[in-house]
Automatic annotation (TrEMBL):
Main subcellular location of this protein, as a coarse class: cytoplasm
Binding residues annotated for NAD(+), in chain numbering: G186, G187, G188, A189, I190, G191, C192, E193, E209, G273
Gene3D superfamilies registered for this protein in UniProt: 3.30.390.30, FAD/NAD(P)-binding domain
Name listed for the protein in its UniProt record: Dihydrolipoyl dehydrogenase
Disulfide bond sites: C52-C57
Gene Ontology molecular function, alphabetical: dihydrolipoyl dehydrogenase (NADH) activity; flavin adenine dinucleotide binding
Entries under SUPFAM superfamilies matching the protein: FAD/NAD(P)-binding domain, FAD/NAD-linked reductases, dimerisation (C-terminal) domain
Originating species: Ferrithrix thermotolerans DSM 19514
Cofactor: FAD
FAD/NAD(P)-binding domain mapped to chain residues: 15-329
Amino acid sequence: MYNRGEEVRPISNEFDVVVLGGGPGGYAAALYGASAGLSVCVVEKEKVGGTCLHRGCVPAKEYLETASVYRTVLEASEFGISSPSPTYDFSVAQSRKQKVVDQLWRGLSGLMKGRGIAIVEASGRYEGNGMVSLSDGNTVHGESIILATGSVPRTFPGFEPDGRYVMTSDEFLALNELPQSVAVVGGGAIGCEFASMLCDMGAEVTIIEALPSILAGCDEDIADVVKRSFRKRGITIHTGTSVTAHQPDGDYTKLLFGDGQELRVNAIIVSVGRRPNTDAMLGSDASVELDARGFVKVDPYMRTSEQGVYAIGDIVNTAQLAHVGFAEAIVAIKTILGEYAVPVEYSSVPWCIYTNPEVAFAGLTENQARNMGYDILVKKDQFGGNSRARILGETQGMVKIVAERLSNGKAGKILGVHMVGPWVTEQLGQGYLAVNWEATPEEIGQFIQPHPTLSESFGETVLALTGRGLHIG
């Protein structure tokens, strides 16, 4: 009935924990639970790894890396390297993407098998009383159940994905050839990543966003840097605008939006968020409560309204990030074990957006801090003054830190760290720790930053907040 690691005992359909869904949250719960000695079964209708590995984070970032390499070759003459008329074959990028995904999937599958986790390759539905029914007619039972069925792309009437004119991330990431003119509907993180990649690969790109700004959840100064970069590179941005219809015509489709505006493109990518995949998750005897939008209601320890049943990942109304799913999985397993568990602090989770330039942040934006009543101090360090950024030839961007202002005028705890520029997704770690430890600039300023590095900009900004900066005031 299922693929079983050798260490699972007894050989039956009874487990300590049954996890419904094998995406990041689900497989993290299985790995963490198995490492604690629990017998665990994962029910997954496709391949373990979920959307993130197979149709989301990993494939998208592989394509973004392809765009980065292409951009580097195009600009190689600045370093005295001749690379006349470089071209790309996107089908090769697609093959490389699949190779990366398959290697990671095989590694994950082997890791789960090595920890004795049973993997059921079937669709599952939670029926209540610890019972999960399977599409092959069998059932499995768990003393505890973890629901982790993930999410699917949101769509809206008139723009249902057809794989030719209209696509979501699922269809786009399966392409072997890139469209040359694209309208991206939605200017959030995923939409902006697609727009950035397509532009760097030579496509004509238009972003249409209903909200007043793209990257609406980012600090305004950070989002402004991305907007300026996009416009300089030829990306057209329409904000405060909605699409109304599209009319296919051969290789093109005419997109209607705004107040009678029209745009002729090869493809439309709909990127307006993801909805919880809970439609067929529950049977009639399950007493797990959903909210009006289909999210599972949970408490801070990921417990649902039914005793012994937990929910994690994209099906709960929290940040739809793989690493948040990992964290929620640990909280759920610790709670099942009766161990001390620290609930996820959602207001300060790390965010990374892999556009060109990259964006990374944790904690409160400047506006959020002010709206919450904080008296604040703000300092910024532009990457234009950073030696490593100059060496790389990527000087666009900044580090911005928001700190509480104490009654004596000095900087107190760091409330938010916001970055935009080269490789900031790899630099956020120390900023995330500073925010979550409620550290002060005086404390963080004691740490030495190696030179020359991009991470110096964080250290410079922290020192400036102490009132005694080196290169910035």
